[in-house]
């Protein structure tokens, strides 16, 4: 809707803006609130005063339009001033959606019954034992699923050699860290043995500056450790807390928890299927685009971040979507280029998390960075944080981490964090 503002309305609004602004601006030679309008306009500029006037006048005119035309609006109007003399603005009003449902009463969808079996409970208990496993020295060559402690030198083609001592690498088949194929070269090495090899990033690697790049490695195996799972007995169960004291109690507790999770998931899926069927059968379903924006705002507001940080996250997410196809690159310089991400922010986070883990002990973020880089190459930092970010504040909260329920515990152990303090 195009609206042309009457000159009398502009004049009245300018006068009101003058009386407001003159009380806020200190003009040499006049007490606040006492400068004549001509002096104020010369001091702050007529356009600034006009802008102040329109910021108050335009919403009043929009409200007047809504009342006169009895519009059922569902959001604040979007306004754009398209002409200054005379003042003309365009207002877009988001009206109440027009919905005409189909025969939704005939929709019949039964919620499927869910039942947790012994196999699911077995998997849960086994994962629990895996999370509480100890790494003990082994007098044999490296095998898959071992922890290898190595001294390693890496040299990019035409680049500078970097050396790292005492690095702990979880030797997993088809592991992507630190580079595809690295673990395979460690298998079979004995303590004190050395090996040189060259690996390349895949040509279709997600970071284009690394795609196809060759890295030369020289590795010396220092020690091999193998995983020892705790015995599944009442003593182990009691060490978990949660008021459990027997294997039978643990299995019962696990079954109840898994059953509730499965039922909640089934309920959500059932509700989604019903709503999808209602929408599919609707005869007419028209809604303003602002509804999409408001739903995004609501989802952000429900997050654990305060409002200013939530808006920063939204902007970063949009930039990742527009410029990187929706995949967040694991590149420090790129991440630091995002608005709201800075050295101080990143270093403080690293300081808190690594000291809480007990991986380093330092009194300041700067000192933590120095100690951490000496033990853990920077190339791992972003990968670890990328894995932690989706879990937000549910990982490593409080005075001590809850390692027994941590979804990325294996990543911690891969970089040498075996137990928290």
Written overview of the protein:
The chain has 421 residues and is an alpha+beta fold. Among the domains are: 2-95, Alpha-Beta Plaits (2-Layer Sandwich); 97-133 and 230-287, no CATH class; 135-228, Transcription elongation factor, GreA/GreB, C-terminal domain (Chitinase A, domain 3), CATH 3.10.50. It has helices spanning 7-21, 37-44, 46-69, 118-131, 182-186, 234-239, 247-280, 290-301, 307-324, 332-337, 343-357, 365-375, 378-388, 409-414; strands at residues 2-4, 78-84, 87-92, 98-100, 134-137, 147-156, 162-170, 194-200, 214-228, 284-286. Mean pLDDT is 77; it is low at 389-402.
Secondary structure blueprint with pairings:
Elements: E1 2-4, H1 7-21, H2 37-44, H3 46-69, E2 78-84, E3 87-92, E4 98-100, H4 118-131, E5 134-137, E6 147-156, E7 162-170, H5 182-186, E8 194-200, E9 214-228, H6 234-239, H7 247-280, E10 284-286, H8 290-301, H9 307-324, H10 332-337, H11 343-357, H12 365-375, H13 378-388, H14 409-414
Antiparallel strand pairs: 1-3, 2-3, 4-10, 5-9, 6-7, 6-9, 8-9
